[in-house]
Amino acid sequence: MMKIAVIVGNRPQFIKAVVVCRAAQDFFTQNDDLFLIHTGQHYDNFMSNIFFEELDLPKPRYNLGIGSGRITDQIGAMMKPLREVLEAESPDVVLVFGDTNSTLAGALVAAHLGFPLAHVEAGERLYIRDRQPEELNRVATDALATLCLPASRKAVGQLEAEGISSDRIIFTGDTMFDLFLWGKNKVAQLFPETMERYGLAPGKYILATLHRAENTDDPQRLRMLLGILDAADLPVILPIHPRTAKASAAMGWEPRGSLKFVPPCGYFEMMSLLRGAELCFTDSGGLSREAFWSQTRAVVPMSASPWPEISQAGWLERVDPEPTQLTRALVDRQRPANWNPDMFGTGDAGRRIIQALDRFRHPTTVDWRPPLVRGHGLPLTV
Ligand code: UD1
User: Which of 126, 156, 236, 362 is deepest in the core (most CB within 10 A)?
Assistant: First the structure.
């Protein structure tokens, strides 16, 4: 008997949860139970429902309906209903993904209630905290996690460097890589239709996304980034996140040149747009990895690189938010000769996660519960 509570709330987490749910179907026995708790952080159709429908993600057993708000208020609002659900369900382990407010709220509640906590995509760091809410969420969640499940090889070393003992770390590889490989054929089929729908020619456009606080919350910076995309020498298609749409509307900015805003897309359509793009301009950690797997070069306008391993391989260029640098990066069309996605695992992260969680099966012989784990209380790298 094994019960896993999976906490999701944001677009990328639905995508990651699909992979874990599929693996659970393959490995679970009849008495095992895996269920979703949706915090409701993302609630629009195209930010939430679309992923449940197109990826066949099981309907959440609970939707807490929290919605948008200031970061601290949002985390706070999630905690009481999460406590009630977790107390009622008493899972063997709570699973959280990535670095969002839903991740941290889930981690805090699970840890306070004494439920084992497993963190998928643990150990990623920018080592910058200013206007990086995700970094705070990551660091805190890893410190609380009973089990850290890094998606990249680099993250394993980063966790160890922070004093997290190796018996709390299991490298699984990246769930998004599993899904990318699984969806490849469908994406190829959808590709011609996507090009037609958006009026694009393969290899002759740039795919862009922008939604990080550091890029959207300062109007001057957002205006500069959008202006540079609007002046690009190729058409730029930007599926717009609601946060960015609101910020650009608030400053009365509209594209007049190469840039075109379109509504956010589902998973397969986004992968299809990526497949034909000459370049991907993004501040999304997920999309910059997906660009690498699609062998599309990414330009990332952020103050630190989320994926230095992709930069080292030459497929990602982090660029300071400065007009000359950005303009140069947008016209650089060279691609590296080599491509090797090994650092993100072998596309079986879902299976590895479910197997790693098996240690929490009840009754268990190993006591993984905090605060017995070693590595707590050590200084965190800033
Ligand atoms: C969150 C995550 C980010 C992740 C992103 C994926 C945090 C701190 N950040 O950022 O790491 O990459 O999700 O998209 O948790 N909104 C809507 N409809 C929705 C959801 C949001 O209109 O369904 C609008 C609201 O105005 C909201 C704003 O978008 O205030 C931002 O949403 P929020 O959930 O706070 O964070 P994201 O920017 O989406």
Answer: 236
Question: How many CB atoms lie under 10 A from the CB of residue 312?
Answer: 12
Q: Choose the residue to mutate in 73, 78, 211 for probing ligand 1, maximizing ligand atoms within 8 Å of C-beta.
A: 211
Nearest to 34 by CA among 74, 1, 64, 63: 1
Measured in angstroms, how far is the CA atom of residue 243 from the centroid of ligand 1?
7
Amino acid at 246: K
- The b-or-e profile of 268-287 (16+ CB within 10 A means b, else e) is bbbbbbbbbbbbbbbbbbbb
Sign, CA dihedral 55-61-67-72, equals negative
Counting ligand 1 atoms within 8 A of each CB, the residue from 10, 50, 129 with the most, and so the one to mutate, is: 10
Tell me how far the alpha carbon of residue 215 lies from the centroid of ligand 1, in angstroms: 13
> Which protein residues touch ligand 1 with a CB less than 6 Å away?
10-12, 41-44, 47, 68, 71, 99-101, 133-134, 211, 242-243, 246
Q: Going residue by residue through the chain, which has 382 residues, state the pLDDT in tens, using 9 for 90 and above.
A: 899 999 999 999 999 999 999 999 988 888 899 999 999 999 999 999 999 999 999 999 999 999 999 999 999 999 999 999 999 999 999 999 999 999 999 999 999 999 999 999 999 999 999 989 999 999 999 999 999 999 999 999 999 999 999 999 999 999 999 999 999 999 999 999 999 999 999 999 999 999 999 999 999 999 999 999 999 999 999 999 999 999 999 999 999 999 999 999 999 999 999 999 999 999 999 999 999 999 999 999 999 987 999 999 999 999 998 999 999 999 998 889 999 998 999 999 999 999 999 999 876 655 544 433 333 333 323 2
The residue whose C-alpha atom lies closest to atom 19 belonging to ligand 1 is 42
